[in-house]
Each structure stands twice: as C-alpha cells, then as structure tokens.
Write a structure and sequence with these properties.
By secondary structure, the chain is an alpha/beta fold. The chain has two domains: about 170 residues, Thiamin diphosphate (ThDP)-binding fold, Pyr/PP domains (Rossmann fold, 3-Layer(aba) Sandwich), CATH 3.40.50.970; about 130 residues, Rossmann fold, CATH 3.40.50.920. Helix content is about 40%, strand content about 20%. Strands 3-2-4-5-7-6-12 form a seven-stranded mixed beta sheet, sandwiched between helices. β10, α9 and β11 form a beta-alpha-beta unit.
C-alpha cells in the first residue's frame, strides 16, 4: 500500500488514462451522454474529436450506438452518471450488451454516496446490485486513481462487457504503481485473526483507517480489498473470512445486492461466521457535503469502528 496521502478523483484518473490508451489504440471510441465535462473527457474530446460521439441526453440510444461499434470491431467506452447507466438504460444494456457479450466498457461516473449536491435523481446506491445481476457483465469499483488506471486497461482488454465505477471527488491514493490489478481478483491488504473487514471502491481507504482503529483497540483485523464485485474472488473471500469472530463488509453502496450480499452468498456456503454489513440501508440518498453525508448515514471510520466493536461485544 502507498504510504503517501496524495488524493485524486477516480474520474480524473479515468479521463487521463483513457486518453493515453486511445493514443496507442485507434479502435477506442467514446460514446458520451452529455456528461463528458463532468467525467474528465475534455482533453479526449479535443484530441480525438472524430472518436468522440456525443449523443446528448439519450442514454438508451448511447448503449445501442456503443453495441453497434463493438460489433464492428471498435472498443467503445460509454460514459454517463452511474444513476443513468444502471437505471435509465438497463433494458438496452441487458439486451444489446450483456446478452450479446459485446466488449463495451460502461463507465458509471459520480457513483456512490459522495456525489455532491446532485439530488436523488442523479445519485444511485443500487447500481452494482442492478448490474451485478446481469449474466456476463463484470462489475469493477477501483479504490483510487492508481487502481482506476489499471482497471480501465483491464476492462478494455476484457473479452466481454464491463461496468466501471468512478467517483466525483478526490480520495486518498493507497496503491503504488506496481499494483497488479486483475478483474476477478481480491487483495489481502492486512492480516488479522479476529475480524475480517472487506471493502470495495473508494471506501477502502476509510476501511484501512477502521482496521487501524480496531487494531489499536486490541482487535486483530484483516483487511481485504474487493474491487471486482463480479466475478467475485470467492477463494480469497472464503479463505480470508474462515475462522474469524466477525466478518464486516464496508461499502459505498446499499447493503442490498452489493458487496455485503456478494460476501453473504459466499459465507452461506461455508462455515458461516457472523456477518455485519455496513453501507446504506433500504433508502434513497439525500444531497449534501461529503462529511455531512458520511455522518448522517453512519459511515465515518470512527462510527464504523464503534459499530464493529458493539457487534463483537454483543455476540
């Protein structure tokens, strides 16, 4: 893990890396639904105007365009907000992309809780649960800018369709340039005997804080980063959770259908240690400042640490 505290928004890392990839691969094209400025694609658009297809606020049509390009041998990257990718054009993704198995990269920007004051219509905490249910569609949530760059390259090389989650605001960089990312792999970041804490996406830097706080309290805590929700690294999850007093999932997503549900599916088939799922409940999200939202939904590292300790003490 990276010992520095530098921060970068994964959307910015995505835009910069996509531009570099496109310079080497002329088959890469962008299909944008009027949100390129918000997702970090201004430089791509100015550098490759002929490979930047602006469909406007027509996400369903964008999926059809991307699928057609993929069928003709291009490597299309469709970009919009996660709420629109997962919800507005679900039928088109299911029929034109997932069922066909075409190698389309779906970029869900401004994902998760910390999306600014966009309002309930523009924020989704259920995108992974929706898209994880589609057969053949890989779902990836990178932890930081370093992993986003590597995840994007992996998605572009993947033989089938992928959904890639990006965040609006800067988050701490925890990985170094030698991080070996692969779709379908989870990463043991810290060993521990009492608790296994599993996190995904940009919640992993906060999970690292929680693991440190728990260890300071005397609880030996393992930390597993799970950037690929599907296909899930079942072997690593099963091995890391085996024999623990408590398993905890910590995610920037609803506890329904996301990482918590994916881990629960694995544990149910194993020795079933107690599981505490930490994320948002069955609710739509209000708008606000990041710190206020983390406090309101009880997702701050200090609060999460207390919730975990309480769960241990009440076993």
């Amino acid at each position: 893990m990276n010992g520095t505290v530098q921060a970068e928004a994964t959307r910015d890392a995505f835009g910069a890396e996509l531009l570099d990839c496109a310079k080497a691969d002329p088959s890469i094209v962008v299909v944008d639904a009027d949100l390129g400025n918000a997702i970090g694609l201004v430089q791509f658009r100015s550098t490759f105007p002929a490979r930047y297809i602006q469909v406007g606020i027509a996400e369903q049509n964008a999926v059809g365009v991307a699928a057609g390009l993929a069928a003709c041998g291009f490597r299309p990257v469709l970009t919009s907000f996660a709420a629109f990718v997962a919800c507005r054009c679900l039928d088109q993704i299911r029929v034109s992309v997932a069922q066909t198995g075409l190698p389309v990269v779906l970029l869900g920007g401004h994902s998760g809780l910390l999306a600014g004051r966009l309002g309930k219509t523009h924020v989704t905490m259920e995108d992974l649960s929706i898209l994880r249910s589609l057969p053949g569609l890989a779902c990836v949530a990178p932890a930081d800018g370093v992993e986003m760059r590597k995840a994007l390259r992996a998605c572009l090389a993947y033989p089938g369709p992928t959904y890639l989650r990006a965040t609006r605001d800067a988050t701490p960089t925890i990985f170094t340039s030698d991080h070996e990312f692969a779709i379908g792999r989870a990463y043991m970041l810290r060993e521990g005997a009492d608790i296994c804490l599993l996190s995904s996406g940009t919640m992993t830097p906060r999970a690292a804080q929680v693991a440190t706080l728990l260890s300071d309290l005397g609880y030996s805590t393992a930390l597993v980063h799970v950037p690929t929700l599907k296909p899930l690294d079942i072997q690593t999850v099963a091995t890391a959770t085996r024999g623990k007093r408590l398993v905890v999932t910590y995610e920037d997503h609803s506890i329904l259908g996301g990482l918590g549900s994916a881990v629960a599916e694995v544990l149910f088939e194993g020795d079933r240690p107690p599981l505490l799922r930490i994320g948002t409940e069955d609710t739509y999200i209000d708008s606000g400042k990041n710190d206020d939202l983390l406090e309101f939904y009880r997702l701050e590292p200090e609060v999460v640490t207390g919730r975990i300790v309480n769960a241990l003490e009440t076993q």
